[in-house]
Amino acid sequence: xxxxxxxxxxxxxxxxxxxxxxxxxxxxxxxxxxxxxxxxxxxxxxxxxxxxxxxxxxxxxxxxxxxxxxxxxxxxxxxxxxxxxxxxxxxxxxxxxxxxxxxxxxxxxxxxxxxxxxxxxxxxxxxxxxxxxxxxxxxxxxxxxxxxxxxxxxxxxxxxxxxxxxxxxxxxxxxxxxxxxxx
Length: 183
Hints:
Largest sheet: 7 strands, mixed
Order of helices and strands: EEHEHEHEHEHEEE
Number of strands: 9
Shape: globular
Number of domains: 1
Low-confidence stretches: none
Structural class: alpha/beta
CATH topology: Rossmann fold
């Protein structure tokens, strides 16, 4: 079961796709959001949730005070799940779902964001991940946090110009990398 941990929707259950995604565990989400809360990165933020899956990261952000969230997911079943979770929580115009692959979305959007999550499939090719990170950097202002979840077995990705790794922390099979947009 996946649920929202804290905030306006704390305790509410979220639907998750039956196959094709790996929901972030409560323990990992709590660690991520503890750090983001401490940095005051959530209140009023414009969140980008890439490889959204169930939308748990963006929805947790909205529950904790984010102004809006954009969810990018290419798998139709997952898109339907995110849309259903948004409707169930009554988020209306605060949340938008884009059914598209991450790289083309980042290359075409002109919108900027103040918090970004990437939770790609564990088997994503290194080159695809680096390309997504490079395309993400121009969509962020300096100082904006970027949270990347990958398999602990995956080697540290190359961080493109414009993004600087700040810290990495392993939680069992998941490693969370915290980065920041730099000039």
